[in-house]
Design brief:
The protein is α/β, with parallel strands linked by helices. The protein folds into three domains: about 70 residues, Rossmann fold (3-Layer(aba) Sandwich), CATH 3.40.50; about 220 residues, Mur-like, catalytic domain (UDP-N-acetylmuramoyl-L-alanine:D-glutamate ligase, 3-Layer(aba) Sandwich), CATH 3.40.1190; about 150 residues, Alpha-Beta Complex (Protein-Tyrosine Phosphatase, Chain A). Helix 1 runs parallel beside helix 2 and helix 5 crosses helix 9. It is globular. The two termini are about 35 Å apart. About 50% of the residues are buried.
């Protein structure tokens, strides 16, 4: 929503916005863009009446501004509707979708297209550091967008990505997520089947072949939701993928590998990104770049100079030899792959994992058995209490004490530390952790929210 606000302002519109809270990095973006924001919702924020009220999917009936919009018959639309009609229609739309890696893959793609001289417009759910922004509006024929499977608005429960008129889709992986809106994995698969079914026959599906569910959707279509376009496959673990990687080498400075196409060497890649999951992200982008006709050498140059995304393995500071990293990981698969990547980057250093169960999926007991496994690459683990636990039935919640107990059985130092809210939890964790840290430690803090500003609090404490 913050990115869209910036795009609309770039088109010349006056844009204002309301939310119950704003936190970095997007709060910083809004300040930089000069967009007027209101903390809290009030009908007065809609006076004089805007030409369009863009309603985010986090708001619902009972919100005073939504009630004002409906009572006064103001013109309103969802985020994805506005993106489609103001920015995508008439352009080549490249949608990066999947349970994990959407933001990073879209950011890599946008930078590859930029270096490849396509001058793309883009919209990303994070700040792409190469651009210093989460969006760009240009006059070119190309639009790259992060395809979110979360629902659209209180009146439209379809995923946002179904609005994005996809010509090319990079589909990294599919797992069960968003337990607040999807009952099970089958419900998630249904939406991704609809997405690939929307690609025109002149388009392209670039499919992550290491994901069993992606393979199922491509190889076992359920009529009439088939795939009607050419398919490119990419992966590391499955030898049947068209695009793959060999000679993988992970160092503290960079990752190196040879991208192959149908078994033949295609492109020698160097990237500052860590982890096998980022090798897959790069492979998907390489396949897309080839379909768009970009020069190989420019693709290699872009991958080597990619700077990552804020809140995706972002080093927030190094103080007294202690490295503090911020990451958005919350799904157990993302946590495990992120911690493995950190271990690859810092192979001889102690890895301290700090996690806040904040998303709906992480707060529920669905992945009770997976979380102890996901923290395996860490040496020392701290979990905060469940965020807003009162909003879930007690018998439906993740048992944080059980996760801690399971981690201790593995021989790990593991603790549940926190307070009544994110701020109190952050303060309590910092009080406990700061005296425990020593030079060389790497602290990986994972949450899909602001986590009470814990990153800066910890850096200040150890300083």
């Amino acid at each position: 929503m913050a990115s869209l606000a910036g795009m609309l302002k770039a088109q010349g519109h006056r844009v204002t916005g309301s939310d119950k809270a704003f936190y970095p990095p997007m709060s910083d973006e809004l300040v930089r863009l000069g967009i007027e924001t209101f903390i809290g919702f009030d009908a007065k924020n809609l006076e004089p009446a805007p030409d369009v009220v863009v309603v985010g999917n986090a708001t619902s009936r009972g919100n005073v501004e939504i009630e004002h919009v409906l009572n006064h018959k103001l013109n309103y639309a969802s985020m994805s509707e506005v993106v489609r009609e103001n920015f995508i229609r008439g352009r080549h739309s490249i949608v990066c979708a999947g349970t994990h890696g959407k933001t990073t893959t879209t950011s890599i793609l946008a930078w590859v297209m930029e270096v490849g001289k396509l001058d793309p417009s883009f919209l990303i759910g994070g700040v792409a550091e190469n651009f210093g922004s989460s969006f760009k509006v240009t006059g070119s024929n190309y639009f790259a967008i992060e395809g979110d499977e979360y629902d659209t608005a209180f009146w439209d429960k379809r995923p946002k990505f179904l609005s994005y008129l996809p010509d090319t889709v990079i589909l990294n992986n599919i797992e069960f997520d968003h337990a607040d809106i999807y009952e099970n994995l089958e419900a998630v698969k249904k939406q991704f089947r609809l997405l690939v079914n929307l690609i025109p026959n002149q388009g392209r599906l670039i499919a992550g072949w290491d994901s069993p569910v992606v393979r199922e959707i491509v190889l076992n279509p359920i009529a009439p939701q088939g795939v009607w376009c050419p398919i490119e496959t990419f992966g590391i673990d499955d030898g049947a993928a068209k695009w793959s990687a060999r000679k993988l080498e992970f160092t503290p400075e960079e990752t190196r590998f040879m991208a192959t196409c149908e078994g033949a060497d295609f492109l020698e890649v160097r990237t500052p990104l860590s982890g096998k999951f980022n090798v897959r992200n790069c492979l998907g982008v390489i396949a897309a770049a080839e379909s768009l006709g970009l020069e190989r050498q420019l693709v290699a140059e872009a991958l080597a100079t990619f700077k990552s995304v804020k809140r995706r393995m972002q080093v927030r500071g190094v103080v007294n030899g202690i490295t503090v990293i911020d990451d958005f990981a919350h799904h157990p698969t993302a946590i495990k792959e992120t911690l493995e990547a950190v271990k690859q980057k810092y192979p001889t250093q102690r890895i301290v994992a700090v996690f806040e169960p904040r998303s709906w999926t992480t707060r529920k007991k669905i992945f009770q058995d997976e979380y102890p496994k996901s923290f395996a690459p860490a040496d020392y683990v701290i979990l905060a209490p469940i965020f807003e636990a009162h909003r879930l039935a007690s018998d439906d919640q993740l048992s944080v004490p059980q996760v801690i107990e399971d981690l201790k059985v593995q021989g790990k130092m593991a603790f549940e530390i926190g307070g009544a809210d994110s701020n109190a939890s952050a303060d309590a964790i910092v009080r406990h952790l700061a005296p425990e840290l020593r030079s060389g430690d790497v602290v990986m803090i994972m949450s899909n929210g602001g986590f009470g500003g814990i990153h800066q609090k910890l850096l200040s404490a150890i300083k």
